[in-house]
Amino acid sequence: MPVLAIGGEKSFGPTMAVVMRAAATDVREVIIAASGHWLMEEQPVATVAAVRAFLDQPSRRMPETITLRPAVAADADAIRNLTREAYAKWVP
Is this structure's pTM higher than 0.85? Predict the structure, then answer.
């Protein structure tokens, strides 16, 4: 199932997609320029455009059944490690 990961250029940027890829294989990454953590307050037009573009794609229809795998401790550790690595790149 496609997942949209949106990050602000001045905040988490590509980190949102890095974290989502720990749980999903079809991750669409969008970085909103000139935005920090508060995307809808800082860049509402760009944020809505990104969400609309994602939702308007024909493949956005929900499947009849969705199979979720249970989270395990290794998943949580992987996400924590990815987040630490990405955070270290953004924060001196």
Answer: no
